[in-house]
Write a structure and sequence with these properties.
Radius of gyration: 29 Å
Order of helices and strands: HHEEHEHHEHEHHEHEHEHHHHHHHHH
Structural class: alpha/beta
Shape: flat
Largest sheet: 5 strands, parallel
Helix content: 55-70%
Number of helices: 19
Number of strands: 8
Bound molecules: adenosine-5'-diphosphate, magnesium ion
Strand order of the largest sheet: 5-6-7-4-8
């Protein structure tokens, strides 16, 4: 029985690493009936309801699926205790996370420890670490900018966490510019309604007494005149008094639109650092790191495979990995180790959209090889069907898998007119609907081309 439960625990740990300590560790198996497949588990009474509602079915599915025990059912009873030892430690940690979030707006887990370094963010990380340990110094404000999903929010939050770890009593606040605007609007409304300045004063007070203020996505201040003026006052109350300000934005300061020039000049007076899209090695490191956090065994070759194809940002990488993990976990027959095949299957669509390494040339060569004709026939004027059809297929795939326009594609096929390309694209699209063989061949070709 104990062995059975250990196996289930392992599976649960993989599926729900974050819930593990709090929900599964306190559970003890108390009865196992091999004949009927009934397993009885005991848990602290406060946990029983949630365990029954949220996790019982999952445990049953794991038993039947992953462990192959059929029939298999689970009953969860109370062990009479209200709290167990390890659980207390876990919930302590959780409540301190929650408390920090409530007080400061800092999300658990967005720390330096979980942040991967690379060329793309080297300078930004160095500046952030410096600011976290020497707040209010020469790099004030610190202005971090970069495209979406590159890790600006994470880095900014990491500063807040590190600073609070070093100064537990300090006053820290982390908000998005949009929240600042909304809060300010609410205070303004309330002051208007009550015909007193109290709400506005409280708002002002809340910010000017901070030791560290982190404002995310300051481009949202664009056009919000009143909030900009208030933010300017906040700035003046903090920065000249060696209170640290950290800002993020999707653009460098000069690129900010509809923001008062005096504010822009303030924003540039500290240090501005950029975060670039992650380079190849960094993308691999991020995938491996994330997999480890999920307690998942991700072979390096699979990480490399994904990192080669998804290039634009970290959020996309994370999303892709989560999809692969989820897919794997709900197909017990695939086993534990993630393979390139699975990644390929799950991420097919993303790869084809993102893969800018797919070229017309590559398509022509692949299609010519596949149908055993010469690559030169892709450009030739010869028209026997065994040549014309592969050529049309190549044009069709070029349209589907690259960003090239019809005239560009035509030019790459021996200077053909764009109407010829359009005709080919329509014809193949039409034929594949009724011709199962052709449809299959197209699938295979696409796989080969995408890699
Ligand atoms: P941004 O604010 O620039 O749009 P985020 O900070 O929200 O991007 O990052 C998107 C996701 O990618 C988050 O889940 C974040 O934790 C993760 N992430 C970004 N950069 C890194 C990094 N260098 N190392 C680890 N995780 C990262
Ligand atoms: Mg962000």
């Amino acid at each position: 029985m104990l062995e059975l439960w250990q196996k289930l625990l392992q599976e649960l740990n993989t599926l729900f690493p974050q819930a593990f300590e709090i929900w599964f560790q306190p559970i003890k198996p108390v009865q196992w009936n091999e004949k009927t497949g009934e397993l009885t588990l005991a848990a602290p009474s406060a946990k029983v309801n949630t365990l029954r509602q949220t996790y019982r079915t999952v445990i049953e599915q794991l038993g039947r699926g992953q462990l192959g025990i059929k029939p298999f059912s689970v009953e969860i009873i109370s062990n009479g205790a209200s709290a167990a030892e390890p659980e207390a430690a876990a919930s302590d940690k959780r409540s301190s996370d929650e408390e920090r979030l409530e007080k400061t707006g800092l999300l658990p887990g967005l720390t330096f420890e979980n942040y991967v370094h690379g060329n793309a963010n080297q300078l930004a990380v160095a500046a952030a670490e410096h600011v976290a340990t020497s707040a209010g110094g020469q790099y004030n404000p610190l202005y971090i900018y970069g495209g979406v999903g590159l890790g600006k929010t994470h880095l900014m939050q990491a500063i807040g966490h590190r600073y609070l770890d070093l100064h537990p009593k300090a006053k820290v606040r982390c908000v998005s510019a949009q929240d600042f605007i909304n809060e300010f609007a609410a205070a303004t409304r309330e002051s208007g309604a009550t015909n007193s300045q109290k709400a506005l004063q409280q708002f002002d007070e809340r910010y000017r007494t901070l030791d560290l203020l982190l404002i995310d996505d300051v481009q949202s201040f664009s056009g919000a005149k009143g909030s900009q003026a208030q933010f300017f006052r906040t700035f003046e109350a903090l920065v000249p008094h060696s209170k640290q300000l950290v800002l993020t934005s999707d653009t460098y300061t000069k690129g900010l639109k509809d923001i008062a020039p005096r504010l822009i000049s303030r924003l540039t007076q500290g240090l501005t650092v950029a975060i670039e899209p992650p380079e190849f090695e960094m993308r691999i490191a991020i995938l491996l790191n994330k997999a480890k956090a999920f307690n998942i065994d991700l072979p390096e070759e699979v990480a490399t495979f994904i990192a080669k194809r998804l290039k634009s940002n970290v959020r996309e990488l994370e999303g892709a990995l989560q999809q692969v993990i989820a897919f794997q976990q709900f197909q017990p027959s695939l086993g534990k180790v993630i393979t390139i095949d699975v990644a390929k299957r799950v991420l097919r669509d993303q790869f084809s959209v993102n893969n800018n390494s797919v070229t017309i040339e590559n398509i022509q060569k692949t299609v010519a090889d596949y149908y055993k004709i010469k690559v030169a026939d892709m450009f030739s004027k010869r028209r026997p069907r065994n040549i014309a059809l592969p050529r049309q297929i190549a044009m069709y795939l070029a349209k589907e898998l690259t960003q090239h326009s019809l005239p560009e594609i035509g030019a790459n096929f021996g200077g053909r007119d764009h109407t010829t390309v359009m005709h080919a694209v329509r014809k193949i699209a039409q034929e594949r609907k009724t011709d199962a063989d052709l449809n299959h061949e197209l699938h295979v070709l696409k796989q080969i081309i995408i890699g």
